[in-house]
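Take one record.
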Amino acid sequence: MTPRFAAAAPFAALGIGCAVAGGLASAVIAPHPTPHGAWAVAYLVLVGGIAQVGLGIGQALLAPAPPARRLVVAEVAAWNVGNAAVLGGTLSDAMPVVDLGGAILAVGLALLVLGVRGGSPDGRARWVRHGFQALVVLLLVSIPVGLVLARIGPR
């Protein structure tokens, strides 16, 4: 396994796991869907799954050198603990937990951005860099929006 692949592997494995969990959750709630259940399915698939895979692969491809194992562990932990807090807090109507999860997600994104700092801007990686930056911006904007929606959403 190459060092760059090793850096992306935990993001990919946990992201795919979240997407599968979202699919399984969808099957479970299908007979009696609820707004919170539908939201949780979408959150698992999109934020826990697809976004996590994209962030991990983006960092692995864009970092000037393969990211250090400690950095990857911190990023993966922040992303998944933050997501668990947002999911658990929203489903249990515990807004302080949702807020804490949002803050942890922001820290995870900051670590990921730092991980790609100084990467080469060559033409080959330009589209990857733009995609990574767009994903980070989308997620950074969605965190505060999600925190507000968690407060005014269906009860």
The helical segments are 3-29, 35-62, 69-91, 95-116, 123-152. The chain has one domain: 3-152. The chain has a mean pLDDT of 92. Residues 123-152 form the longest helix (30 residues).
